[in-house]
Amino acid sequence: MHLTLQQFSTIWMDPEANLEIVRQAAGSLSHKEGSLLILPEMFNTGYTMTPSSIPAEWVDLTINALQTISSDTGTGICGSIPFLKNGKWYNTFILVDGNGAKIVYDKIHLFTPAGEKASYEAGTSSETLDYRGWKILPLICYDLRFPYLSFREQLPDVIIYTANWPAARIDHWDALLTARAIENQCYVAGVNRTGQDENGFIYPGHSMLIDFSGKKMLCMDDKPGFSDQEIGRLEMESYRKKLPFFDDRKL
């Protein structure tokens, strides 16, 4: 399977402009059919702490546009958006492909220092999803600091973190993504935005794909763009058999 990491400077509260950035990238991929394009956290609006100002129709607008892009290109697309459910706003990970939209995960760990905990409802559970035979665990930004979320009775094949991770703590991002890959012996993809947001925070990209041994397969710089890499199941399974650390794990 091909994973494509797309980092960009999210345009504040302008889903149509952000979706056009996604559309152009998806159309430029050399490997489209069956690939998965991963986007930053709140890629359609920016990391807003005032979800009450978001028109409710932006949720459907975003999902419908992604379904069109996916249908036109053959690639799956995932990332998080502000999502309205039962009158409450969540930071929700969605995945869209030819089979429709999967609303798969509400962010559990809301970032208190930014006011996210006061602005959104927290999720209560996280589950792996099956995508083309791969077990994918979707998580969001601050979740990266809490390793128990990625500990499963059955190892995931890929953990995805969609994020708005600031430049001030980018060393933590690099280290924690690598740790999650090593301890779970799986692929880890982390996609972070670039640029400066409306609150003046700088985001340095640094989107990364790390393999099951902790080796960096992709490490992007601070510029907008996308990069893709094929991942292989046989190599991962062989590594797990050679070093069966999971057998000694006590959950």
Structural notes for this entry:
The protein is built from five helices and 14 strands. The protein has helices at residues 15-28, 57-73, 116-119, 170-184, 233-242; strands at residues 2-7, 36-38, 76-85, 88-97, 100-106, 129-131, 134-140, 158-163, 187-192, 194-196, 202-204, 208-210, 216-219, 225-230. The strands form three sheets. Strands 5-4-3-2-1-14 form a six-stranded mixed beta sheet. A six-stranded mixed beta sheet has the order 6-7-8-9-12-13, covered by helices on one side. A two-stranded antiparallel ribbon has the order 10-11. Helix 4 (170-184) links the parallel strand 8 and strand 9 (187-192). The model has no long low-confidence stretch (mean pLDDT 95).
User: What string, H for helix and E for strand, traces the elements in order?
Assistant: EHEHEEEHEEEHEEEEEEH
Question: How many structurally independent domains?
Answer: 1
Distance between the termini: 30 Å
CATH architecture label:
4-Layer Sandwich
